[in-house]
Amino acid sequence: MTHRSRERKERGEGMLTARTNWKVAVTDSGFPDLAPEAEALSGTGASLAPGRCRTAEEVAALCADADAVLTQWAPVTAEAIAAMTRCKVIVRYGIGVDNVDLEAARAKGIPVANVPDYAIEEVADHALSLLLASVRRIPQVAAQVRKGVWEIAPCRPIVGLQGRKLGVAGFGNIARAVVRRAQAFGMTTLAYDPYAAPDVFARHGTEQADWETLLAESDFVSIHLPLNGQTRRLFDDRAFAAMKPGAHLINTSRGGVVDTDALVRALREGRLAGAALDVLDEEPIAAGHPLLQLDSCIVTSHCAWYSESSLLRLQRYAALEVRRVLEGGHPVHVVNGVEAVR
């Protein structure tokens, strides 16, 4: 479905309910303004109540009488959800929903939705850009040039991409987009995803691999996993020891999937040739963090999702999920199993 047809579908369904004084709380955001949300909700009678919530208590205070909640990073905990007396839907700006207590919302009958389709191409572009920068050692070469060093030797070794293996952990939409790009560079691809249908791998020219094979055979491992109890610190000392010597790790998904201390050890000991990360378990990264002291590590500021277009899509799509509910419909992308709206 195209972005435009998706919007038409979402805005066209449902009948506007009798109430016209809906409160839509926005717990927090890093957006320049909320004009896209206001436009998406126009005609519903909804008003936006923006906040700068950093604690569960602040979320509870803002959202206690809200009919819908839009959230980016604020902690929407069980306590905050318990304080919500009128909430019909919680929508997370983005794909990951680890800042929302899904079970608490489910127990209260509140659907939680995300926005999984606003930046697929942007994140895939960034993931492959990180891979290229890591393997071609572009930051290191550029730093040497700034110091007046016009030589290749200080930045060796640099390997070619043709015939190398890219392994993706998780095989959702973003991972598949990364695979398409990698194949265009002459790489072969394999993927680990126990939840993907077997035929999906073949359709994308990708070998289905188990966890051990992914680690042992991949020259580059790109992470595309949600953060949950099963994936938290999945990439730990044991995983890094099992990876192909000299491999590169790319992460554009969730920082908590990687044990940062274990990654530092793997890089320092030379078990990995490089790592390129757009996400970390604690953000923003502290000045002087060990990762920033390693020439073999590239860190970007959780910006893989961003383009001017994706920013507007994220805001608009999130607000359209709210609109659907206020018009008596259901969210498109429910992540906690609650289909019926209170």
TrEMBL record:
Recorded protein name is C-terminal binding protein
Q: Which UniProt keywords apply?
A: NAD, Oxidoreductase
Its taxonomic path starts at: Bacteria, Bacillati, Bacillota, Bacilli, Bacillales
* InterPro entries documented for this protein: CtBP, D-iso_2-hydroxyacid_DH_PdxB, D-isomer_2_OHA_DH_cat_dom, D-isomer_DH_CS, D-isomer_DH_NAD-bd, NAD(P)-bd_dom_sf
Query: Gene3D superfamilies, from UniProt?
Result: NAD(P)-binding Rossmann-like Domain
UniProt domain D-isomer specific 2-hydroxyacid dehydrogenase catalytic: residue ranges: 55-336
Q: Name the Pfam families for this protein.
A: 2-Hacid_dh, 2-Hacid_dh_C
PROSITE patterns (UniProt xref): D_2_HYDROXYACID_DH_2 (PS00670)
Q: Name one GO molecular function term.
A: NAD binding
Native species = Cohnella fermenti
Report the sequence similarity comment from the record: Belongs to the D-isomer specific 2-hydroxyacid dehydrogenase family.
Q: Which domain of life is it from?
A: Bacteria
Residues annotated as domain D-isomer specific 2-hydroxyacid dehydrogenase NAD-binding: 128-304
